C-alpha cells in the first residue's frame, strides 16, 4: 500500500478542469465553424456590395455603411438618402415582426395558461388530451402551413364553408391573400401550432406547486379565482417568464410559416422573410446581409434587455 | 348540486374544445388526402370518399421517396453527431467548476436562439467553399448550428440532476472523467439521450430555410422543401390532394414517435425550456 | 494503517472561509469521529481528507507524506456516503468490484475480495441484485462492502446512518463498530451530527464549531471534562443544565453546568435549590424531572425509572459537588 508521491501531482480539480476543456473543444470548434464564422462573414458582407455572383470571386468592394444608410447628392444639389434604414419596406417588415411577435406570444401565453389549468385538473382521459395537444406541436411547420393554407383556401376552404354555413360571413374570404386578413391567418396558424408548447411548459410549472397550498386555501375558504391570482400566478411567474422569452425569440425570427402561407404579401413580410428575398431572390448580398445583421442586433439587444430587466436565471446554474 | 353539474359540464366542454381544435386540422388533412377529383373541393366533416390515388401519386414519384431518405439521413447523422459532442461537453458544463462556465452556457443558449437568417450568407459561402452545395453534407453541417447547442443545453440540465455522490464514489473508485461519463453516467442518461435526440431529430427533420437555400436539385431535397415545392400540372393548379397525402405520410411517423415518448418529451421540453 | 496529520488546514470558497486552520493528529487504526452542529465544517473537513475538495492552505499528511495534491483514488481511502451512492445500473457485485476493475486488478483476486467482503457483511446472497431491489439497510451494507473491497488505509464515513430509520440505525451502528474491531489496523474517520453515534463509536471525538476544533478527546474525557460551554452542551443527552446569574455566582463562576444525573432530590434541610416539578418524562429506565427553580430554564434531573414525582410537587435539590462544571466569562472552565 505504501505509495510515494513526488509532490508534483495534479490535484483532482486541476485534472477535472483539464478534462473539461478537452471535452468542450470539439463542440467549441464546431460552433466556431458553423456559427461564429458564418455570422462574422454575414456581418462582413453587409459592408460590401456583394451579389450572388461576386460573393465567391472576390470582386465585391467594401462600401462601408452604404447598405445601411447612404447620403447621395444629385447633380442638381438635391440630397437623397438610401439604404436599409430609410427603406420603407424594411420598416414595414420590422413593424410586421414586432406586431406578430407581440400578439402571438401574448395569445399563446394566455391560451397556454388556460389549457395548462385545464390539464392540471384531474379527470378521466387527461393523458389522451395531453397526447392530443402534442399533435399540433409535432407537425412540421411546412405541413401545418400547407394544411392551414388548404383549410383557409378562399374558394374551397373548410373554414369559409363553416363560417358561411353558420352565417358568420356572407362571402368567402381570401384569408391568406387579402392584406387585412393575412396577418390574422398567420397568427391563427402560429397560435394553433405553438400554444401546446406553452401549455406544456406551464403545466410543468403548475405541477411544481405543492398541492397543500391549494388545500390550505380551500380550507381557509378562499375563492378559487383569488387563489389563482394570489397563489398560482405568482408561483408560476418564473415558468411563464422563461416560456415567454423563448417564444418571443422564436417569434422574432419567424420565417417558414410566413414564407409558405402568405408568400409575397406585404402585410405579413417579416425581417427574416424580407432579408431572405433580398439574398436569394434579388441576389443582393450586401443589403440582405445588412438586414439580417440588424435582425441579429435587435434579437441580441432584446435578450440583453430581458436578462438585465428580468434578472432571469436562464442557465439555472445558481443551484 | 346544479352549480356543480353546470361547472363540470363547462369544464368538459373546454376539454372537448381543446381536443377538437388540436386534432381537427390534421384530421381534415387526412380526409382530403383520401379524396380526388371534385370530391376534394367539397368541404366535408365526415369521410365521404376513400381513394388511395393521392398516395400512389406521391409514392410513384421517386423524388419524394428520395426526399424522405435524404431527410432521414440528414437528421439522423446530424443528431448522432450532435449527441456525440454534446455528451462530453455537457458533462464539462454540468459537473466541472471552471472559470467562464456561466458565460459559456449563455453563449450556447444564445447560439440556439440565433436567427438562422443572420448566418445564411456566411454559411452559403462556407458551404460553397467546402464544395458541399446541393449535397446532404451542406445540411448536416448547417443543422449543427441549432442541434448542437440544443442537445448540449438539454443534456446539461439532465446531467446536472444526477446525484453528486455517485460521481464522487466513482472518483474515489479511481474513475477518470471519461470513465465517469461512459461507464457511470451514460447508462443513467440514456432516457435523456433518447428524448434529446428525438427532439433534435424533429428539429432537423422540420428545418426549412437552410434546406431551401442549400439544395437546388429535386434529388437532394428534404421532405419540407419537397412538400413546399410540390406543384401540379400548371403553376396555377395546386395539387391539394397530393400535398395532403405527402403531409400525412411524413407527419404520421412523427406523431407516433411523439405519442410513444410523450412523457419523456414533456420532460425534455421543460428541461431546456426550448422551442418547438 | 495510516497516521493522518492536519497542519493548519484551511478551506475557503471565494471570500468565505469554512475551515479556519485545523491542527489534528489521527493515529493509526484509530476510530475518529468528527461531530458538530450543521455548518460547522465537519463534512468539508472529511472531503478535504478524501481529496474530493482541494485544500486552500496548510498540509495534509498520510504517514508523513504530503498528499494535498494526490487524487482521491491514489490516497488509499474508501468512502461511505450518506446517500449510499451506489451505481444504480450495476449489480451489487459490480458495484463492489468497480474500483478494482478500474485499477486493472486480477479478476480472480477481485472475485475473492468481493466474496470475502460480502460474506463479512452477510450480503453474499444479494450479489446479483440491482441496488433498487435492496432495502435501505442492505444498500448501506453494500456501500460499506464496496469500501472494504478497496482495502483502504483510511475508511471515511459521511453521516452513513442518517438516511436509515431509528431501529436500523442502531443495527448498522453495531455493524460499523464490529467492522472497526475486525479491521483494527484501518484508520476510520466518521462524520456525524448525532452525539450518540459519536459517543458509542469513537476512540476519540473531535468536536468542531464554526470551522475550528473545539476539543479533541475520548468520549469519557469530553463527557467528564469538557473544555467549553459549547462542548459541555453538545455532548450528553439530555443536555447538561446551565445556570447563570446568582446561581452561578454562588459557585464562583459565570456559567455553572451540571448534568441531570448529578443532581439528587434531597431533604429540605440539605437542599441547595428549591422548586416545583413542572413536567416529568418517564423513559422506563430513567425518569426525567423538569424542575422550576427560578433560573432561565427548568432544571432537568435524572432519577431512576420508578422514582417519579407528581407534577406540582415542591422539592429540594442538591448537585454532586465534584461533578460540577464551572465556566468563566470566556465560556472556558475556571
From TrEMBL, chain A:
The keyword Transmembrane applies. One of its GO terms (biological process) is transmembrane transport. PROSITE patterns: ABC_TM1 (PS50928). It is found in: Cell membrane. Keywords: Cell membrane, Membrane, Transmembrane, Transmembrane helix, Transport. It is a multi-pass membrane protein. Residues 94-306 form the ABC transmembrane type-1 domain. InterPro entries: MetI-like, MetI-like_sf. PANTHER family: BLR7065 PROTEIN, INTEGRAL MEMBRANE SUGAR TRANSPORT PROTEIN. Belongs to the binding-protein-dependent transport system permease family. This is Sugar ABC transporter permease. It comes from Palleronia caenipelagi.
From TrEMBL, chain B:
GO terms for cellular component: plasma membrane. The keyword Membrane applies. Signal peptide: none annotated. It is a multi-pass membrane protein. Its main location: membrane. It is found in: Cell membrane. It comes from the Bacteria. The chain crosses the membrane at residues 9-30, 72-94, 103-124, 136-155, 184-205, 238-261. Residues 68-261 form the ABC transmembrane type-1 domain. Keywords: Cell membrane, Membrane, Transmembrane, Transmembrane helix, Transport. GO terms for biological process: transmembrane transport. It holds the Pfam family BPD_transp_1. The keyword DNA-binding does not apply. Belongs to the binding-protein-dependent transport system permease family. This is Carbohydrate ABC transporter permease. It comes from Palleronia caenipelagi.
TrEMBL record, chain C:
The keyword Nucleotide-binding applies. Coiled coil: none annotated. SMART domains: AAA (SM00382). One of its GO terms (molecular function) is ATP binding. Keywords: ATP-binding, Nucleotide-binding, Transport. InterPro entries: AAA+_ATPase, ABC_transporter-like_ATP-bd, ABC_transporter-like_CS, ABC_transpr_MalK-like, ABC_transpr_MalK/UgpC-like, Mo/tungstate-bd_C_term_dom, NA-bd_OB-fold, P-loop_NTPase. The keyword Ubl conjugation does not apply. Transmembrane segments: none annotated. It holds the Pfam family TOBE_2. Residues 4-235 form the ABC transporter domain. GO terms for cellular component: ATP-binding cassette (ABC) transporter complex, substrate-binding subunit-containing; maltose transport complex. Belongs to the ABC transporter superfamily. This is ABC transporter ATP-binding protein. It comes from Palleronia caenipelagi.
